[in-house]
UniProtKB/TrEMBL annotation:
It comes from Argiope bruennichi (Wasp spider). This is Acetoacetyl-CoA synthetase like protein. Pfam families: ACAS_N, AMP-binding. It comes from the Eukaryota. The lineage of its organism: Eukaryota, Metazoa, Ecdysozoa, Arthropoda, Chelicerata. Belongs to the ATP-dependent AMP-binding enzyme family. Residues 101-239 form the AMP-dependent synthetase/ligase domain.
Length: 280
């Protein structure tokens, strides 16, 4: 598939609603509840900034945010924004639980790349993949507050891993795969990740980028990393020797941790954390 030819990729979604449908719906809801009238968008915008607590409370309900405990207070408006006031104080929720609320057969992801045919992943498939990653992470010992790092090209696997990480209450971080080893080390040494998810190689505008030498240098200088998970970009990638990369294995080997003795995968458990708990 050509990098610049996406003629064969179908449109993923064509909104049936007119532009601004949901914004207008929220606007009408607020007009009715608060006995006010907005003549244009900017009047509505001004109301939202003058009534922060009311607006964001309505937005929370309007968007159907999944939570186990509702907030006690949206924001303390006596605290200046420059002092970073706490938002949605008292709330308990999970970011990944909200991202994975759809589990049907609609298309969630279309993966396309220079050296592969398009791949379609449904919401149901995305949940099942994320569930497997989460089970493997938990079996490995990842817990709330741990850091999982990503050093991967644009693929679905990091998305599954991010969902899994957030479901546990762990923290997700990453670096662009075109970064050199030292740039990645400068970033990751600040957060001490326990797991590094990466890939053996990837194409970039018809240039082959070999990741393994960079990964070896990074891991040799990042003692916090307990496991390096390498996504094989092609079937033949698994024939590569990765023995010189400390604590490394290919992705499918690691994911076996998530499958129990009966061959099943535990359902995802979504750690309930505060709204201000770091996601990444």
């Amino acid at each position: 598939m050509s990098l610049r030819n996406f003629d064969n990729i179908p449109v993923m979604r064509k909104p049936d609603e007119s532009p601004g449908f949901y914004l207008n719906k929220l606007e009408r809801l607020i007009e009715e509840k608060y006995k006010t009238k907005f003549n244009n968008y900017w009047e509505f915008h001004k109301w939202t900034t003058d009534h922060l607590s009311e607006f964001w409370s309505e937005f929370w309900d309007f968007t159907g945010i999944i939570h186990s405990k509702r907030f006690d207070e949206v924001i303390d408006c006596t605290v200046p924004m420059s002092d970073f006031p706490e938002w949605f104080k008292g709330a308990k929720l999970n970011f990944a639980e909200n991202l994975l609320k759809f589990r049907d057969n609609r298309t969630a992801i279309i993966e396309a790349g220079e050296d592969k045919e398009p791949r379609y992943i449904t919401f149901a498939e995305m949940y099942e993949e994320s569930k497997l990653y989460a089970a493997a992470f938990r079996k490995f010992g990842i817990k709330k507050g741990d850091v999982v790092a990503c050093y991967v090209s644009n693929r679905p696997e990091p998305l599954f891993a991010m969902h899994a990480t957030a479901s546990i209450g762990a923290i997700w971080t990453g670096a662009l795969p075109l970064f050199g080893a030292q740039a990645v080390l400068n970033r990751l040494k600040q957060v001490s990740p326990r797991i590094l998810l990466t890939i053996d190689r990837f194409p970039n505008d018809r240039e082959e980028i070999d990741m393994l030498p960079k990964i070896q240098e990074i891991v040799n200088n990042l003692p916090s990393v307990e496991k390096v998970i390498i996504i094989p970009s092609k079937k033949e990638s698994k024939l590569k020797d990765i023995s010189n990369i400390r604590n490394s294995c290919f992705l499918d080997e690691f994911l076996k941790l998530g499958i129990d003795e009966k061959g099943s995968i535990p359902e995802m458990e979504f750690e309930q954390v505060s709204f201000s708990h770091p996601v990444s």
